[in-house]
Amino acid sequence: MAWFLLFLAGLFEIGWAVGLKYTDGFTRPMPTAFTIISMIISIVLLGLAVKTLPMGTAYAVWTGIGTVGTVLLGIWLLGDPATLVRVACIALIVTGIAGLKLAT
């Protein structure tokens, strides 16, 4: 269950990271509300996950999910470049996440 909560926390981290782009410097109320709510949910879920998972592992996986998801949505939604080096770096992060999951 802790891994599932951690995965959800990572998804909400993606939500707030991408949401920041749409807040326009926190001047747009709905995107700002979505972003703040996503931040709170992400932190709460991370807090629940670390009750049973090692802190370092949980934090690394949480940030890894957030990083990979944010980069992929940046490519898909915002037209960020999808260069070979960026994709290779994403693959390294995913490999690290999988390794931490297997080691715990």
UniProtKB/TrEMBL annotation:
Record key words, sorted: Cell membrane, Membrane, Transmembrane, Transmembrane helix, Transport
GO molecular function, one term: transmembrane transporter activity
SUPFAM superfamilies on file: Multidrug resistance efflux transporter EmrE
Topology of the protein relative to the lipid bilayer: Multi-pass membrane protein
Keyword Transcription assigned: no
GO cellular component, as recorded: plasma membrane
Main localisation: membrane
Pfam families, per database record: Multi_Drug_Res
Location of the protein in the cell: Cell membrane
Superkingdom field: Bacteria
GO aspect biological process, one term: xenobiotic detoxification by transmembrane export across the plasma membrane
Listed InterPro entries: EmrE-like, Small_drug/metabolite_transptr, Small_multidrug_res
Transmembrane intervals: 33-50, 57-78, 84-103
Protein family (similarity comment): Belongs to the drug/metabolite transporter (DMT) superfamily. Small multidrug resistance (SMR) (TC 2.A.7.1) family. Gdx/SugE subfamily.
PANTHER family: GUANIDINIUM EXPORTER, SMR FAMILY PROTON-DEPENDENT DRUG EFFLUX TRANSPORTER SUGE
Identification of the protein by name: Guanidinium exporter
